[in-house]
Write a structure and sequence with these properties.
Blueprint lengths: L2 E5 L2 E5 L3 H7 L3 E3 L5 E10 L2 E6 L2 E5 L2 H22 L3 E10 L2 E6 L6 H10 L3 E4 L2 E5 L2 E4 L4 E4 L13 E5 L5 E4 L1 H5 L4 E3 L2 E2 L2 E7 L6 E4 L2 H12 L6 H14 L2 E6 L2 H11 L1
Length: 268
């Protein structure tokens, strides 16, 4: 039994391996025309597991490495198509709030995923927790499961069907189904104009505090996490300038995920 997946320019067919399917499952479709098809399977021999990417086999040492090989193959190809068509990848989440598209950025570990889950609980359509593609003032989310600390704040209260698997890292990571978190059968990904950019920072006070930032401040804040995905520095700078000029940018000093989500909704 195979599992077909829509990854924007890429159609992925996973050949029935639950270890791979749980890491790539996204329950989504997109408006982007398909440019490439990719087949992924897993077979075993006397030495262990081999991940087959089309006709090329890569040996995996353990269950986590099986998923990492498959995940890397998919997202490397998506990144190539995105670059070819002028999209820049941002390390951010994406949500649609009452017809407005909000990009929520912040370094790893800041609490983007738990904030996005809290937004979904408030009825917001949450499209991404980690990766957003931007071009000419528009944004589209990169389909992928959400990743969060297993049992972390807000994650422990999710329905069991929302957790696709748990990655057995030293600090275990829960892989979450975005469609289930949003309580929809399938998410639809399409490029739309950005209406607001929120930069998350740690806050010291009892409530979240928002303040506007300049274009220059926004570029400085977004560049470190966007840089690894856009090797050409000139292209990266142009993308960041266009992004920061496309919509108002607000710095939000966050507290708990629920309070931060409420503050974001108050900005829209």
């Amino acid at each position: 039994m195979s599992l077909p997946l829509d990854y924007l320019w890429l159609d992925v067919d996973v050949d029935g391996d639950a270890r791979v399917a749980s890491l790539l499952q996204n329950s989504s479709s997109s408006s982007i025309p398909t440019r490439e098809r990719l087949w992924i399977g897993v077979r075993s021999d006397t030495s262990g597991a081999i991940v087959e990417i089309d006709s090329h086999g890569v040996r995996a040492a353990n269950r986590i490495e099986i998923g990492e090989i498959a995940y890397g193959a998919v997202h490397d190809r998506v990144a190539r198509w995105a670059r070819d068509e002028g999209w820049a990848r941002m390390h951010a989440g994406l949500a649609d709030v009452g017809g407005r598209r909000i990009m929520i950025a912040g370094p790893s570990g800041m609490g983007k995923t738990t904030t996005m889950v809290a937004l979904a609980r408030e009825g917001t359509l949450v499209l991404s927790d980690e990766a957003v593609l931007v071009r000419h003032g528009e944004a589209i989310s990169l389909p992928r499961p959400f990743h969060a600390k297993h049992g972390g704040m807000g994650i422990d209260r999710l329905r069991s069907e929302s957790i696709l698997t748990v990655l057995d890292y030293p600090d275990p990571i829960a892989v979450l189904d975005p469609a289930s978190i949003n309580r929809v059968a399938r998410l639809r990904h399409e490029p739309l104009p950005i209406d607001l950019i929120v930069l998350l920072e740690r806050g010291a006070g009892p409530v979240p505090v928002a303040e506007p930032v300049t274009v220059a401040e926004a570029i400085v804040a977004l560049a470190p996490d966007a840089g690894p995905f856009t090797p050409n520095r000139a292209d990266l700078l142009r993308a960041l300038i266009a992004l920061a000029e496309s919509a108002p940018v607000v710095r939000l000093k966050m507290t708990t995920p629920a309070a931060t989500a409420d503050a974001i909704l108050g900005l829209t």
